[in-house]
Design brief:
Elements: H1 2-23
Length: 24
Amino acid sequence: MNKFIKVALVGAVLATLTACTGHI
């Protein structure tokens, strides 16, 4: 479960970074 949360967190951060980069 802990591993899944970590992967989900990394995915969320990656998605946010991609969205910000795409916006710029």
